[in-house]
Design brief:
With 254 residues, the protein is α/β, with parallel strands linked by helices. It has one domain: Vaccinia Virus protein VP39 (Rossmann fold, 3-Layer(aba) Sandwich). The chain is built from four helices and 15 strands. The chain has a seven-stranded mixed sheet. A four-stranded antiparallel sheet has the order 3-4-13-14. Strands 1-2 form a two-stranded antiparallel ribbon. Strand 3 and strand 4 form a beta hairpin. The chain is globular. It starts with a helix and ends with a strand.
Length: 254
């Protein structure tokens, strides 16, 4: 654990104590990453507040919890020690999971330090059919030519390979931005519920695992008031009804 991660964990625990004092009957959940049981923290992002989002013990967010549970289901019965994985934009939670489950683990990112490969997902230098598994979470919403990136992922996967490529679902229909939005971590689009139809143009089969398929005790939903959109910070995000929204994990097969 780095010094920054340790400081963040201490801050989260302090926030949790304040939360318990303010809301002593706050709903409790179970984190499948570290098995903490108790209230989750709200996250105050530039796009708005997300309730029950963050585990105060390990820092796992909604997407980490649902992705981990889907991964365990997808890899059930798969002889992962014999497989080779390429992990883009590696998160500590998933990095630990992958490096212990797969026989060969390689990390990659466009500019991040400490990875095995600094590469562009739109122009991978690897030979065709190099990897059995590719994982890139919340990456494609940053890439303008996402079809080229999907084609490259498909190219480097072996026959029978699997790619898991989640993006944040923040609209009913996908909206392309004229330029990256710095208030949305430089996203170039607002992916919608229809976004994964693009994946079907590149892969043999695409299964979609949604929040409704995950036990509610793990809190796999996005609790966010999207009726306030669009905002000055997010002028192209359309309003969405409700305060509880699903997340989706697409599993793509070659």
């Amino acid at each position: 654990m780095t010094l920054r991660q340790y400081a963040r964990r201490l801050a989260d625990r302090g926030s949790l104590q304040l939360l318990k004092l303010r809301e002593p009957k706050r709903e409790t959940f179970e984190c499948p990453v570290c098995w903490y049981e108790g209230p989750f923290l709200d996250v105050h992002a530039p796009t708005g507040t997300r309730k029950h989002a963050k585990c105060p013990n390990c820092g796992a967010l909604e997407r980490h919890r649902i992705q981990l549970l889907v991964l365990e289901q997808v890899l059930s019965g798969v002889l992962a020690p014999n497989l080779k994985i390429l992990h883009f934009a590696p998160e500590p939670f998933m990095q630990k999971f992958f490096s212990t489950r797969f026989g060969s683990y390689e990390s990659a990112d466009l500019s991040m330090g400490g990875v095995d490969h600094n590469v562009d997902l739109q122009n991978l230098p690897f030979k065709a059919e190099t990897y059995d598994f590719v994982f890139a979470s919340h990456v494609l919403e940053h890439i303008r030519d996402d079809h080229r990136a999907l084609s490259e992922v498909r190219r480097v996967l072996k026959p029978g390979g699997i790619a898991i490529l989640p993006v944040p679902i923040v609209a009913d229909k996908t909206i392309e931005y004229p330029e990256p939005n710095p208030n949305e971590f430089y996203h170039v689009r607002a992916p919608g519920l229809d976004y994964f139809a693009r994946y079907e143009l590149h892969f043999r089969k695409v299964d979609q695992f949604t929040s409704e398929l995950i036990p509610a005790k793990h809190q796999p939903f996005i609790y966010e008031d999207r009726t306030r959109w669009p905002t000055t910070e997010c002028p192209l995000r359309p309003a969405m009804l409700g305060e509880r929204h699903i997340d989706i994990v697409p599993v793509c097969y070659t």
